[in-house]
Design a protein that fits this description.
Blueprint: H1 2-5, E1 9-16, E2 22-33, E3 39-48, H2 50-71, E4 76-80, E5 86-89, H3 92-97, H4 117-129, E6 135-142, E7 148-158, E8 166-173, H5 175-190
Length: about 190
């Protein structure tokens, strides 16, 4: 069809080099036609894009690895906008809070126990002022069933990072640890 219409063509091909490696080429060209419209010559170029293809594959592997880590982690990763509205919640959110991850656009403050709101607000406001510095605190949250859960959360301002554009909150459930510590203190008080 390129010969008949005179339109340019472009295609990417994979070849085996004589040294056994795979090489990627992008080929571009078009047919030259005589006065009668009959093609008489092909002109074009082929460019080795193997390096670009390898970089692309490395990036895809890195993205798959990152996605797998986040999707299978027991820790919750949350991304908030500058107003503490939820932009992203990792799947662990469902396990810890007992609700769907459809919290995008809602305020993070709605998840906090009322006693934790002021402390979180102070930490959040501080993180807005200082980019890249992690702020670590423990907060009490409300589960969907009304019970409480304690999470150790690390906030980090990544608003200036175009790949994130938000405040990243990594949270780990510390409820069981807190309960074990309470029982140890109570048993020590009995002695």
């Amino acid at each position: 069809s390129h010969l008949d219409t005179g339109t340019a063509y472009m295609h990417t091909s994979r070849f085996y080099h004589r040294d056994g490696t795979i090489r990627w080429l992008i080929c571009r060209g078009s047919a030259l036609h005589n006065a009668l419209g009959i093609p008489y010559r092909m002109v074009g170029t082929c460019t080795d894009i193997t390096g670009s293809k390898l970089q692309e594959e490395l990036l895809l592997q890195s993205e798959r690895r990152f996605r797998s880590l986040i999707q299978n982690s027991s820790d919750v990763t949350t991304i908030l906008d500058e107003n503490a509205n939820i932009l992203y919640q990792s799947p662990a959110f469902i396990q810890i809070f007992g609700m769907t991850a459809e919290t995008t656009g809602t305020s993070f403050y709605t998840l906090l126990h009322p006693d934790a709101i002021q402390s979180f607000r102070e930490c959040f406001d501080e993180s807005l002022l200082i980019a890249g510095v992690p702020f670590k605190r423990e907060y009490q949250f409300c589960r969907n069933d009304g019970s409480s859960v304690f999470l150790e959360s690390v906030l980090s301002n990544r608003l200036d990072d175009p790949s994130v554009s938000g405040i990243v909150v990594h949270s780990r459930d510390t409820t069981e640890r807190r309960e074990a510590e309470r029982k140890i203190r109570e048993s020590g008080a009995m002695l």
